[in-house]
Predict the 3D structure of the following.
Amino acid sequence: MITQRQFGEIDGRPVRLFTLTRDTGLRVEVSEFGAAVTSILTPDRNGVLDDIVLGYPNLEGYVSDPYYFGATLGRCSNRITGTDLSLGEKSVHLSRNEGAFHLHGGVRGFNKHCWHGTPAGEHTVVFQRLSPDGEEGYPGNLQVSVSYTLTEDSLVIVYTGVCDRDTILSLSNHSYFQLSGQGSGKDVRGQELTVFADFFTEIDTDCACTGAILPLTELGCVPREATRLGEVLASDRSQLVLGSGLNHTVFVKHRDRPAAELYDPESGRVLEVTTTQPGLHLYSGNYLPEVTGKGHYVPYGAMCFETQTPPNAVLFPHFPSPVLPAGTLYQQRTEYRFSVRDGCM
């Protein structure tokens, strides 16, 4: 079932909030502003529903938000070192919005635009917008859409795009997951992370990808084994020190199986992430300060699972390419699956 209501107004234009609900109790809210996920309600092992993503109680919070809560990122998610690039034989000059870097699409990325939302069937909402030629320095007119489909146990996101010129495109979602409940005031140190990958991208002192590829063990994780996040975040391994925690992209090994899993022993909630994207960026809320949104949030208060092309891929030919040729369909799929696990509280 889908319902909708007005979330607020921007420049006189009504902004709608859509609510998708299943009989299992699973409920998701998505906004036309930023094509953002604003709420995900899932049951714990006792059947008690709680909202597990960080966010704000009103539209004004998202308009001024500097943390990308729940947002769609684009045209290119994550960092690009420098803003003067070559795209084939043509020069591209992207905007700078984090020092010398272009981050998450620039000064006014996709997260700060109003999209047009349309229900498609009983359990899907599609958001669309035209990103014009030159927006944040990107070439070409890009017709882009993001669809959210709620199944009995999953939120499925499908990204599509077509451009009339060669461009750069790597779309993602920046939801912050706190499986104990977004209003719990807790950090993620007591939760367990399993990564189904073997390698990740090295970062430098600016948290920018260097192009080097390192084994997952350098992040204090053993592939395919659960690791308590408190152990990872307390590690003195150089990559974790540079990132002040997890701020790294792993290379997705299987696109039809989970790339990562997060488990909260207290609530029993489990989140599995499966994607067709070549990379999965793991971010442990390292730079999140104490901030009040729908609840009170703390540093390391949530985990982000940003499916994307590896950062800086446009600079490294040995990485999967984020270049979208003119007239070519871009399509990627990400599934967040929710379940519970029995265990002692």
Observations:
- The CA atoms of residues 67 and 318 lie 30 Å apart.
- The mean pLDDT is 96.
- Helices lie at 59-64, 229-233, 238-242.
